[in-house]
Amino acid sequence: MRVKMLIEAQIEKIVDLALAEDIGWGDVTTEALIPDNQWGAGFVVVKEKGILAGIEVAKRVFHRVDSGLEVDVLLEDGSKIKPGDIVAKVEGKVASILKAERVTLNFLQRLSGIASETNRYVEVVKGLPVRIVDTRKTTPGLRLLEKYAVKVGGGENHRMNLGDGILIKDNHLTALRSRGLSLKDVIAKARQNAPWRLKIEVEVKTVSEALEAAETGVDIIMLDNMDIDDMRQAVKTIHGRALIEASGGVTLNRVRAIAETGVDFISIGALTHSARALDISLEFERE
Length: 287
What we know:
Elements: H1 2-23, H2 28-33, E1 39-46, E2 50-51, H3 55-65, E3 70-73, E4 80-81, E5 86-93, H4 94-124, E6 131-133, H5 143-152, E7 166-168, H6 170-177, H7 183-193, E8 200-204, H8 207-214, E9 220-224, H9 228-238, E10 243-247, H10 252-259, E11 265-267, H11 270-273, E12 280-284
Parallel strand pairs: 6-11, 7-8, 8-9, 9-10, 10-11
Antiparallel strand pairs: 1-5, 1-12, 2-4, 3-5
Helix pairs in contact: 1-3, 1-4, 3-4, 4-5, 8-9
């Protein structure tokens, strides 16, 4: 219950910041033109095919602007959507709807874009025992929502933050090797000093480093920017002694071949840092 309350509070804060950024000192156009007592209805309309994500956030935006707005959600997150689909209807003061419009659409377009991009990768590797996961390459301040969108699209979340797991990357290793520590020493140090529940993952760049990591008893080995042949060899070398993550240079054209090497996870920064926003608009009902 406490975790849910914290998440709700964080989402509320994200929405409030977005509204403050957009409305600023007031919607001067709407205030100059639209009577406060004018009522109307608007429809949130899809313009291209994809996966819907963020509809409850959109509803929250409308209610944050004006609690009197009536929002009827017609399609839930995770729905496959196509041009012409209406995902929600909002009724109430026209001025309030207009003030909420841009922020509402920003969230819906961004999150639906991430869910849609994730789903494309998930579909390409369908039938193989591999999981598509995200990274921490997210928009500052929006990580909670963007990682939620990845899950809506069928992917899974890697670390939510730096406290979610031990991930020893190349810069950690460079810093510690300058002090004379070997990879085995680094893993031992991590096990000694880290909270006992956390799994330990280490990034490697060569097959020989993968073998060295496997021999330390590490939980997860990340194959960073390896070509397909090296990945395949690394999987054979590790031989089930650790879970294996492939990362770096993953594209839709390449992801199936990566999955076929036998890795357990494929992490893709592009799910969040490069996903194109889905085209969604708000259209008012005409009398």
